[in-house]
Design a protein that fits this description.
The complex is a heterodimer of chains A (165) and B (102). By secondary structure, chain A is an all-alpha fold. In chain A, 58% of the residues lie in helices and 2% in strands. Chain A has a two-stranded antiparallel ribbon with strand order 1-2. The longest helix of chain A has 20 residues, at 6-25. Classes of the chains: A mainly alpha (165), B alpha+beta (102).
């Protein structure tokens, strides 16, 4: 069924991507797939926020949207009320996610480049000069510095996808 | 919706946003009868990759004193008056600075 506008369309797709991400969380598939869907969920959510609710042509997008969107969400009284936090609490919560957000933005193949880890396409290992297959790479270990932040981002995504923005 | 009510929400958001994001140096309002339109200047964001202002859209919520839809963009201070504005936002000459003093 067609969505009423581009913002709703991207939000619906983000919800679907997030559902797949949750299924992957319970599966034995290589963890690149979970990170791929995380990156896709945040990208679609960012695009939903960058789209007007007016019908018409698809909006023009900028690729790097997650850090910018988090900074703006921090200042959104409705979103922080949905998270049941005060302004100060929510600001600190979002600030703690900015490093992770930047890391996720760099997971997009276009941002990672030919020798940067990304969960979608093989890349060149700088040391051995050989290709690395995402499915054989431990993204869990690669992201180990962000364990708590990943849980917090998951909660924020769940709230945004459920309540909107 | 009246322009005055939209301006009131713009001022509320500008003040609130500054409080939770002290890195915002200036806030500019682009008057419109359709929605709240703000551009916030902040150093801690990446440089625009396409020389355009990309606002994020937030729907209104009467419960949270935000009855109107908001379109808010963050840009770097040096990008002020240099990026292309969204269609129908007018020109940079329409920008009105909102300060804490009102």
């Amino acid at each position: 069924m067609p969505a009423s506008n581009w913002s709703e369309a991207f939000l619906d797709q983000a919800r679907s991507d997030f559902s797949v991400m949750e299924m992957l969380n319970e599966s034995d598939f290589p963890d690149c797939h979970w990170f791929h869907y995380l990156q896709m969920t945040t990208e679609k959510l960012g695009k939903a926020m960058l789209s007007t609710s007016a019908p018409g042509r698809p909006p023009k997008f900028t690729h790097i949207a997650l850090v910018r969107s988090l900074r703006l969400l921090k200042a959104n009284p409705r979103v922080r009320a949905d998270m049941e936090m005060s302004g100060t609490q929510f600001a600190a919560y979002v600030d703690s996610l900015l490093g992770l957000a930047s890391w996720i933005e760099r997971l997009a193949p276009s941002a990672a480049g030919q020798d940067g880890a990304n969960p979608e396409y093989p890349w060149v290992d700088k040391a051995s000069k050989k290709p690395i297959v995402p499915a054989d790479f431990s993204f869990s270990q690669y992201s180990s510095g962000y364990k708590i932040q990943l849980i917090k981002l998951n909660e924020l995504l769940r709230s945004l996808l459920k309540n909107g923005f | 919706m009246s322009r005055k009510e939209i301006e009131r929400q713009a001022r509320y958001l500008a003040k609130d946003n500054r409080a939770v994001e002290p890195s915002i140096s200036n806030v500019y309002w682009f008057p419109s009868d359709a929605e709240v339109r703000l551009i916030e200047l902040i150093k801690e964001i990446p440089v625009s990759d396409d020389r355009r202002v990309h606002p994020f859209y937030f729907r209104g919520s009467k419960k949270h004193k935000l009855p109107f839809r908001s379109a808010i963009a963050m840009i770097r201070p040096e990008e002020f008056k240099r990026l292309e504005l969204p269609e129908d936002w007018g020109s940079w000459a329409d920008a009105q600075e909102i300060t804490d003093a009102g």
